[in-house]
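hi! just following up on the protien thing from before. the input was this:
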Amino acid sequence: MSYYTHRISKFGAGVFVKGRREYMHVGSIPASMLAKPLPNTPAPPLVSPKFEVRKVNSGSPALFSTRGVSLANRGFTMIELAVVLFIMVLAFGAVGISISSGNDATTIKTAARDMISALRYARGQALMLGEETTVTIDFGDNTYYISTRDKVYQIPQNIQVRLVTAESEYSQDGRASVRFFGDGSSTGGRLTMELDQWVWRIEINWLTGLIDLTDA
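and the predicted 3d structure came back as:
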């Protein structure tokens, strides 16, 4: 049984006549010449081809094949896995640095606020009792205490503390004090607390005894 059919592609119209294929430009084919199936001739079955992109070698372009293998089944190459792992390591490192930096900021901020509370308490005691009250810092142990209380407060060891105050308030054993008087005034000074790149400064006004905290 004989039949013929046609196929149109971007290159033109291909006409198949008993196994022979001829190409001509689409524009040159009149409608009356388009291939039609012969009477009583069954149409050939339509098959949807499946394609995959396969690279023949490193120097050749990608070729098409009709093996029917899906691109999703190729898996990952070692280079792709290495790139993914490298990105994950960088991401976890950045998160670790961020967490550490946040912990340092919280630590020094808490220590500075505790010191301010102690200084303000000492000033309040001096005003209320009408007598001198001191806050003494031991630089060797990183501790401080208030003269009207027995409790010793600990400053984290990784925080560096410096105090600039009246020379009379320094002692030979590595201690220095801020003294508040009954009228609210003080010896004044500047107390600096530092942890890595974080620096907090506490200003004590000698005339009024007021305390201010600044983030340097």
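Residues 1-28, 60-69 have pLDDT under 50 and may be disordered.
The chain has two domains: 1-38, 83-215.
cheers
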